[in-house]
Amino acid sequence: MVRPPSIVLEGEASIAGARLFSKLRLELPAGRWTSLLGASGVGKSTLLRLMAGLDTGADFDGAIAAGDGAPLTGRVAFMSQNDLLAPWLDVTGNVILGARLRGEKPDMQRANALIARVGLAAHARQFPHTLSGGQRQRASLARTLMEDRPVVLLDEPFSSLDAQSRADIQELAGELLADRTVLLVTHEPGEAARLSHQAFLMNAHGLSELPLPPSSPVRAVDAQDTLAAQAEMFRRLRSAA
């Protein structure tokens, strides 16, 4: 993987003439996790999809630039709330799907290593409908890693999991994506408190930075400073509602 860039998004967006979010500036430091929290409908996922180069249905007036001056095209991987696994492919087939779609020969050694790393070696030939929710998200994470992109955008990727699986996958993602430039959109203050180097609350008027512990991610779920940061984030979310 090439060195991850910093990213700056600056601008405003509207849908059918109605303001979605006012002019804001979001900077993602290179090789660090940034989390974005806020009420539904304030434009978090739109902002993330703008960075991914995906259709948003919004009119964006602004710019998105990488700190190294190179285009972001081809350097971004996207992991959504839904695992989006192809039901007709087994775990291995899903992990190598990106290469297949691009007409490339998949690196099977790397694919098998990633499948093992996320704990699915014994399930490599299983199809999505036979997997648990946690196993499906592990497969989705392996597919994201298989793309080997320096920028990773996560749109509520763990929200459908039970508490134990969510904590496990958070820790795995934090470890395996530690050297990437990551933007995580989440509704979970605890998730942001555990995984982030910086976190912001987004509303229609812009962004405000949220407090985080001085310790480095991934933070223990029951650490006092993690719990304190989580509580303060929750308080600010409620105040902004």
Word description of this protein:
With 241 residues, the protein is of the alpha/beta class. The protein folds into two domains: 1-75 and 151-169 and 179-241, Rossmann fold (3-Layer(aba) Sandwich), CATH 3.40.50; 85-148, no CATH class. It is built from eight helices and nine strands. It has helices spanning 44-52, 91-95, 97-101, 108-117, 133-146, 163-176, 189-195, 224-240, and strands at 7-15, 18-28, 33-37, 59-66, 76-79, 151-155, 181-185, 198-203, 206-210. The protein has a six-stranded mixed beta sheet with strand order 5-6-7-3-8-9, sandwiched between helices. Strands 2-1-4 form a three-stranded antiparallel beta sheet, with helices on one face. Helix 5 (133-146) runs parallel beside helix 6 (163-176). It starts with 6 loop residues before the first strand and ends with a helix. The mean pLDDT is 92.
Descriptive keywords:
single chain; 241 residues; alpha/beta; Rossmann fold; 2 domains; six-stranded mixed beta sheet; 34% helix; 24% strand
Summary, kept brief:
This protein has 241 residues and is an alpha/beta fold. It folds into two domains: 1-75 and 151-169 and 179-241, Rossmann fold, CATH 3.40.50.300; 85-148, no CATH class.
Secondary-structure class: alpha/beta
Radius of gyration: 18 Å
* CATH class descriptor of the largest domain: Alpha Beta
Shape: globular
Quick check: average pLDDT?
92
Counted beta strands: 9
Enumerate the strands of the largest sheet in spatial order, edge to edge or round the barrel: 5-6-7-3-8-9
Strand content: 15-25%
Biggest sheet character: 6 strands, mixed
User: N- to C-terminal separation?
Assistant: 40 Å
Helix percentage range: 25-40%
Number of helices: 8
Order of helices and strands: EEEHEEHHHHEHEHEEH
What's the architecture of the largest domain, going by CATH?
3-Layer(aba) Sandwich
The CATH topology label of the largest domain is Rossmann fold
Unreliable stretches: none
- Domain unit count: 2
